Amino acid sequence: MEKSVKQTVLSADRMVPRYTSYPTAPHFREGFEPQAYKTWLGSIKAGSRLSLYIHVPFCASLCWFCGCHTKITQREAPVADYVALLQKEIELLAASMPSGLEVTHIHFGGGSPTIIPLPLFEDLMLTIQKNFKLAVSIETAIEIDPRHFSEAQAVTYARSGVTRVSFGVQDFDEKVMSAVNRLQLFNAVYKSIELARTYGMKAINIDLMYGLPYQTPQTMKRLAEQTVSLAPNRIALFGYAHVPWMKKHMRLIPEDALPDTSARYDLFEIAAAIFEKAGYVPVGIDHFAKPEDALVKAQKAGTLLRNFQGYTADTAEALIGIGASAVSRLPNGYVQNTVHVPQYRDRIEKGILPVEKSCLLTEADLLVADIIERLMCDSSVDLDAACRRHGKFLQDISTALHKLKDLEGTGLVHIRNGKRVEVDNRFMVRLACAAFDTYLAPPSENIQRHVTAI
Q1: What angle do helix axes 186-198 and 151-159 make, rounded to 10 degrees?
Q2: Residue 215 confidence (pLDDT)
Q3: Residue 322 and which of 50, 158, 173, 337 are 20 to 30 A apart at CA?
């Protein structure tokens, strides 16, 4: 008897990176000097567009599913101190770059960016405006905890130029959310979204998770239907990554309540079917958007991209990360700020860019990064065209093509004329990417601990 698609995917599944970057973060090297970063910043070409990511590593309470760099605080003082540091870093960055660079996108992430007191948020936005040239059509996005979103926040964000809000929902089910220490009811989310729309922030994202404790086909169906009723522009359906060896608070989650791999597959497919039936278009491997959304248009045009915040239509030549642990993507490569706030504070107060790690991109890296990005965004890639873009030849990636032969045997990955890779199943995409990843240790060595593709 032939295997079903699900059985085939389950048998091929293994631990692989999420590929929000290539090379992936575990391969960034320590010891990057601030002066070297200044050189990279100074070499950004005049007329380039910038995207800014501001990381706020604070939350009022700890969600046990969280894999982010964040600290818990109930006090305003440490947040206020941190905002002052962000402002100093923005000034240091602007002084290190050519003048006239245009910012086309700003994203506030965390943590919980909404923990910033509103007057300080306005001050922070003014600092950005004073130090950078903002595009007329700039998109400014902020991640919001819908449990604590007020009318005052809606007014301030709208007045400060926020155009997109991303609500971290994860799930509405009381049993599921109690098990991860984040009780959150549907009505609270509904009111928060209506507040955002009332004040003109009509671009609404909702982030969900599958693979959480106590999720079942019934709860996932209800979650998907409730989400559709809120009519967001975009939906992200991320797989919960249970990594208690990295995040100790995840040990508080009852492991026997976590869905197994087979159940995770079903949970995703149940939600995806409901989203697609409601008219949402699948984008990449885990996003859904309304047909008129910029992500869908970019996917159709072959210009969809992927970064540490997920899928994006932003085509800025450089992404500048600001704040503790933030990652920058420059033409030369990746740079990561020091993760811990005390070290971040120490360097900023000394007038030093707070960089800690870097990854200089080689010509070989640029080719593989291009191939992986196209697979992650389009589920297909023209290898011959990618090689030509980077002055390489198909023989330069012959090892990867050999590795892909095993996946081709599943019937879900195809190599057309030895030049084009096409993947028929979203869960197989990251597995196909892994074939090109020259940094990834063989499964038998188990040196790096990632999460499974499902």
Answers
A1: 40
A2: 98
A3: 158
d(CA 297, CA 314): 12
Of 170, 118, 167, nearest in space to 145 by CA: 167
Distance of CA 428 to the CA centre of its chain: 19
The per-residue DSSP string of 408-452 comes to: HTTTSEEEETTTEEEESSHHHHHHHHHHH-TTSPPTTT--S--EE
The full set of domains in the chain, from first to last, is: 22-329 (3.80.30.20), 362-441 (1.10.10.920)
Is 197 buried (19+), middle (13-18) or exposed (0-12) by CB count in 10 A? Answer: middle
On whether the CB atoms of residues 182 and 240 are closer than 8 A, the answer is: no
The model carries a pTM of 0.95
In 66-220, which ranges are E strands?
71-72, 102-110, 133-144, 164-170, 203-210
What is the reported pLDDT for 1? 43
Q: What confidence score (pLDDT) does residue 407 get?
A: 93
Q: Is 208 within 8 Å of 236 (Cβ atoms)?
A: yes
Query: 146-149: long-range contacts at Cβ-Cβ below 8 A with a sequence spacing of 24 or more?
Result: 146/184, 146/188, 146/189, 146/192, 146/193, 147/182, 147/184, 147/188, 148/60, 148/112, 148/114, 149/114, 149/192, 149/195, 149/196
In this prediction, the residues of the chain whose per-residue pLDDT falls under 50 are 1
- 166 forms beta bridges with 143, 205
CA 353 – CA 89 distance, rounded (Å): 7
Predicted confidence at residue 447, as pLDDT, reads 52
Q: Which residues lie closer than 8 Å to 452 by C-beta, 6 or more apart?
A: 13, 14, 15, 16, 261
CA 443, 444, 448, 452 dihedral sign is positive
